[in-house]
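cache lookup: miss for this entity combination. No prior model stored, computing from scratch. Input as submitted by user K.M.:
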Amino acid sequence: MTESGRSILRVLLVLTIWLAAAGSASVAALPGASYAADADAEQAAADIDKLLQHLDAGDTAAAKQDFAAVKKWWTADKNDVKSRSLDLAMEIDGQIASISLAFVSGNLDEAKAQASNLRFSVTNWKDGAYTDNNGKSQLTLSTYVLKLRSAADLAKHGKWDEARSEVKVLQQQWLAVEGDVVSRSQSVYNDSERDLVLLDGYLSDPNKRDQAGPIFDRMIDSLAPLADAHYSWWDAALIPIREGFEALLVIGALLMYAKKAGSKPARRWVVGGSAVGLATCVAVGFVVALALSSAAFGRNNMLINGWTGVLASVLLLYVSYWLHRHSDAKRWSRYLASKSSQALSGGRMFSLGLLAFFAIVREGLETVLFLIGMAGKMPGAQLAAGIAAGFGVLAAAALIIVKAGSRLPIRPVFLVSSVIVFYLCFKFMGSGIHSLQMAGVLPATIQDGLPDFASLSLYPSWYSTLPQLLFLAAGVVAVIVSVWTGRRRGPATRS
Amino acid sequence: MLKSSLSVLTLAGLLALTACGSNSNGAANAGSASPSASSSQGASATASAPAASASAAGQSGAIQEGTSSMLDAVKQLQDAIAKQDAAGVKTLGQTINDTWLSFENAVRQSFPLEYTDVEKYEMPIFSASAYDKIDFDELKANADGLADALTKLQNAKPTTESSSELLKQAVAKYQDYVVDQTNKLVTQTQAFVDAVKAGNADQAKTEYAKARVYYENIEPIAESFGDLDPKIDARLADVDDPNAWTGFHRIEKALWQDNSLDGQDRYADQLMTDVKALQEQVKTLKLEPKAMVAGAMELLNEAATSKITGEEELYSHLDLVDLAANVDGSKTVYLAIIPALNESNTDLADKLDQAFMKMEQSLAGYVKNGQYVAYNELTTDQVRQISDQLSELSNLMSQTAAIL
């Protein structure tokens, strides 16, 4: 095993033990028992639907009968609702009174409007989507995903209007669960918000209805894991793997470069920067989870995400350029020969360490919060095993990158890693600026013509796209320049 | 050279972008500032400004003047009551009300607690002046009470307590009111039950109407005690098993529809038991300000949901009695929270005052022979008018939640 591999594993081992201890010690308070739908409330909802139908048809007599049934339900259940949520109870009470007065004064439009409001309130009661008397929200993510699935089902069977009204309710109920989602994955949160709007748009447009299906699927796929009550060690492992992949690429490229340069100090700087990054994430993550709340930390998380992304992107541009320049074998051997074993200057090594730090902190804080969130959902031993496995996979991948890099000749290795690093630089810039827009540091202006690929961190906003274009242009220019100077030096250099 | 200048360019570009961004964006998007908090602060800022602009000296002068004129009028009223002078009583009732209207706003803003006491006695006196039949005993009690309240007002000092302390006092006062009403309910129900058991239908009908007032004044409180409200106040439509139906309306049906009090003794006894149980429960009542303010809303909703439809008193058609009691109960809460309202929204207090007054005046118009007319005698237009006023009152009352 290589020196760098050993160091990585040592650091990870310590962290894993630390996290396992915390995981088994933590008694995460589950966010309130999920509220089972009340049969009476179901009946009341059905009665209100009939009431709305009869009002639409102008059948006042039948409407009044339906309303009588609703009033009877309320008389029986009012205390129950009050005991759970005084606010919701007062809403329903007021809506019923308004409907009653509307009937008395013969104002059927008002009766219809209030009946719709009542329908929504009763739906919220059924689904537990309300703030209870302790200020907590009862709607769980699992229930939310279930409702998503049922809406998707409606869409699949061509019941577009029902699907659309379901989606509208889901949009309004998103507030009740978004806290759960944003604390675990910023990206899922952003994607879900975007998808809810897309679904609404697609379902309301007869020409675009078919596009709703895939969006439902991807939304369910991204939310379900967060809501899944049955977490296993593999779920815990997937988190570092998924979130840490890009950081892995950066660290791997840096390590490989350090190895090629034969510079042990450089390697130590990279490993050191990574370790400090990991430690920072874990420390801040615990502070947030124990002292603050994930939701309250949301904006700070976006700020950290934003700035580290942008700064890392700039550094990566430099690294990418440097790798590309030295992919010429002649130049590289000349470079090695001209320097001592301390081939890299202090300033450059520091930048490498800093880059490693940024790359990890960028997604690391979110990852730690997510893992802490999982601490209450599986036995501590499983969590520890999962985290160890996840980081183990990352470490193995890093080793492979370094090994492969050391075995292969300079030119392809440096060229490929230059491209990969350049891609990361491009992506980090986009997502960094997007995060800053979410945090309110930059204005969130949308330009419809621009490409929108969240996975490539391409967002339809000039604030993120313009720097990305500049980088792209700079990269193209650099490539052209190097090819041109290479040709100019003539065939004599190619031997 | 190239690489460092490249990085410098990029950094410079980024910094420029950020600078533009933060200048135009500023704190607009930042943080989670709740818009409702800032808007309610804005409302209170504008509301307290006009109150502050009225000179304190001018106000207290007006209050002193008004209070003395009113006291004179009340003394004359007490003389007229002693002489049983119906015409004189009616004229004086009007005079007293006119005088009160001229300076009551000032009193409400400066002496909210004393305001409550004066209102408590002044309103019935004014209402009585509109009735065709005068209950001199009740009037005497009110006149004496009003004289006391006015004297207290003359000697009152402006309140210096904070809004939350005032609210706590309001809750305490309201709880006393609830206990008082429940005690009166027990006494009155006893009279009702005695008449029922004695087989005296006419007496029972009179006592029934009186008992309903005390119950409907505090109905949401009774509702909060689990199953007492269904036992005491359930309508036939609400029960699943007609054989298990008990309470006021069971006996109401016997009195007004079946026209026979046979077999009603056990219902009467059950009613007495339940009402006494309520009395016990109410002694342990610990209200939160939020629940009390919600209760005011609930009373108006009650009126809107079952009284205005005539389904509450299906057999006796005494819905107006119940409706008036609901409104009165709601007003009691409103009077209790005036001090807190004064802190945040005197405009709302004014509007509520006017809305209550309109409601009470319009209801008073339906009193014949000292009693409310039967609900089924009202025309559709009259019902609509009451309904609109109720709606307006509800809208205003729902805004009082802002004081919490």
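stored under new cache key. Chain A touches chain B through 42 residues (CB under 8 Å).
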